[in-house]
């Protein structure tokens, strides 16, 4: 039973919306217009398939994006150059089966070539221990908390991407021409690559 991670397709947006809004209190609900804006503007919007069915998705933005998330703004007020995971959703019947880990491995392999840090948040209402443990096992650490406009409190998490400095110093803005290095979404804005080091 293999997991395939690939770019989302436009005709799948209704299924992605249903998956998001069935995820429970740990994921904020979306409407069709907001999901469409993600499709049009997100630098990274990929789905995971397991046994040929949609099993999860992940949406992410580079730090220069025109993204209106409270938590994205919190990170941008404190950091210049990063990649932000807006949301990851795994179908309830697929949780614990490696789908989340496959999506995180994929987004990290994308981000670490272009950004020095990876950010996300975990909503703290309704039992967040499993989500915090999941992120901690990937090397994320809490760097603060944010109370969002709706009153939700989020743990703000960061992971240093230590491969970034070597890639930047070796290749600068000209990554090799290899298919696996292509940006996941051809219409996504190019990533900006300033100097910086991994702590």
TrEMBL record:
This is N-acetyltransferase domain-containing protein. It comes from the Bacteria. Residues 3-163 form the N-acetyltransferase domain. InterPro entries: Acyl_CoA_acyltransferase, GNAT_dom, UCP028520. The lineage of its organism: Bacteria, Pseudomonadati, Pseudomonadota, Gammaproteobacteria, Lysobacterales. It holds the Pfam family Acetyltransf_1.
């Amino acid at each position: 039973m293999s997991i395939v991670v690939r770019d989302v397709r436009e005709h799948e947006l209704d299924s992605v919306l249903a998956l998001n809004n069935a995820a429970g209190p740990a994921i904020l609900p979306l409407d069709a217009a907001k999901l469409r804006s993600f499709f049009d503007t997100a630098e990274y919007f990929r789905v995971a398939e397991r046994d040929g069915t949609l099993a999860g998705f992940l949406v992410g933005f580079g730090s220069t994006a025109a993204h209106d998330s409270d938590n994205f703004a919190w990170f941008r007020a404190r950091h210049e150059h990063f990649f932000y995971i807006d949301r990851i959703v795994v179908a309830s019947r697929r949780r614990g089966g490696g789908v989340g880990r496959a999506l995180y491995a994929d987004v990290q392999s994308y981000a670490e070539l272009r950004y020095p840090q990876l950010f996300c948040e975990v909503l703290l209402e309704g039992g967040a221990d499993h989500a915090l443990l999941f992120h901690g096992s990937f090397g994320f650490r809490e760097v603060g908390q944010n109370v969002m406009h709706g009153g939700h409190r989020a743990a703000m998490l960061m992971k240093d991407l230590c491969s970034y400095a070597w890639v930047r110093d070796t290749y600068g803005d000209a990554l090799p021409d290899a298919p696996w290095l292509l940006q996941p979404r051809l219409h996504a804005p190019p990533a900006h690559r300033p100097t910086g080091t991994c702590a």
